[in-house]
Design brief:
Blueprint lengths: L5 H14 L2 H7 E9 L5 E2 L1 H14 L1 E13 L2 E12 L2 E14 L2 E9 L1 H5 L7
Parallel strand pairs: 1-6
Antiparallel strand pairs: 1-2, 3-4, 4-5, 5-6
Helix pairs in contact: 1-2
């Protein structure tokens, strides 16, 4: 991986999510990384999270993260953003905050805090 600083890793990670580049995302995660979301309070494995991100790539077209704040913190980075996209039901927008831990240039922990009411708008799209 060429990006080693936390903000470079953040840029590379979110660019890969925007592009639906699952293999790049996989390469940024440490193999045993844990991904947690406030709406269900459960840990996901990398493979579980990659399946979700593949669904996001297929469902949310023209994804864009409008970054409001991205800062390096000890051991990683914090990012506040609004995910904007197009769905079959129209425009979608969801604010979120991500707290990420990095070790040896790879994401080892990602905690995502989002408004579950906004995420629930996506459920009809899975039917």
């Amino acid at each position: 991986m060429t990006a080693t600083g936390p903000l470079e890793i953040a840029e590379r990670f979110f660019r890969a999510v925007e592009n639906g580049d699952i293999e790049t995302i996989r390469s940024i995660y440490a193999p045993d990384a844990r991904i947690w979301h406030n709406h269900d309070r459960k840990d996901q494995t990398v493979e579980e999270n990659l399946r979700v991100l593949a669904w996001v790539a297929a469902t949310l077209k023209n994804r864009r993260y409008r970054v409001q704040r991205r800062v390096a913190i000890p051991g990683g980075f914090l990012q506040q953003h609004v995910l904007e996209a197009e769905t079959v039901g129209g425009p979608f927008s969801m604010p979120a905050c991500i707290v990420v831990e990095i070790k040896d240039g790879r994401i080892t922990s990602l905690e995502e805090y989002l408004d579950s009411a906004q995420a629930n708008h996506l459920r009809p799209l899975t039917a």
